């Protein structure tokens, strides 16, 4: 099936941004605060979305809906994290995104959350995955570049590098190495995937970058 929305990417993969053309009298769902600019005939409505999952991950409870009235209109979307943007067209199928990866979608794509349990908590990642289901265009982002991997049998990914994966894959979070490596090496929990499908991984992790910048933080001079 053909994409409902025409689009083009800019500044990939470091600071990616997308220009999406919304057909006349059609609505595009966009993550709150991701809109950078738009045509004057595009109108916005804000709606609550995501439920308790988005409360506990500290993310926005709101999704904006942009409608091109009477004629097609363009909108530029820009994620908050420095990194890549990726597009998939779902054809009556489902996939999971890390809780902060959703950027935009057709209204026919249903967005829901999935509880990961305590293992997701101890990984240092979000407690929730966003499940995207239906038929239509979907855009998601990463911290760093995005690499698409075809899985035929099994595959292991560090939890901090996971951006998205097919619903056809089974997964479980487990520790990598012993408990000493879990707390001292910077490695620890991984996700073991099995089955056939796709995984999208990001080339950088947020937490190691945060630790790297810690010595350079502004400090109060008590002298």
Rg from Cα: 19 Å
User: Which CATH-level-2 architecture?
Assistant: 4-Layer Sandwich
Tell me the CATH superfamily. Mitochondrial biogenesis AIM24
Strand content: over 45%
Mean of pLDDT: 81
What does this structure look like?
There is one protein chain. Residues 51-60, 117-127 and 179-186 have low confidence and may be disordered. Strand 1 and strand 2 (17-22) form a beta hairpin. The protein has helices spanning 51-56, 118-122, 179-184, 206-213; strands spanning 6-10, 17-22, 27-31, 35-38, 42-48, 62-68, 73-77, 85-98, 102-106, 109-115, 128-141, 146-151, 154-158, 162-166, 170-175, 189-194, 197-202. The strands form three sheets. Strands 3, 5, 6, 8, 9, 10, 11, 12, 14 and 17 form a ten-stranded antiparallel sheet that branches. It has a single domain (7-211), classed as 4-Layer Sandwich (Double-stranded beta-helix). It is built from four helices and 17 strands. By secondary structure, the protein is mainly β.
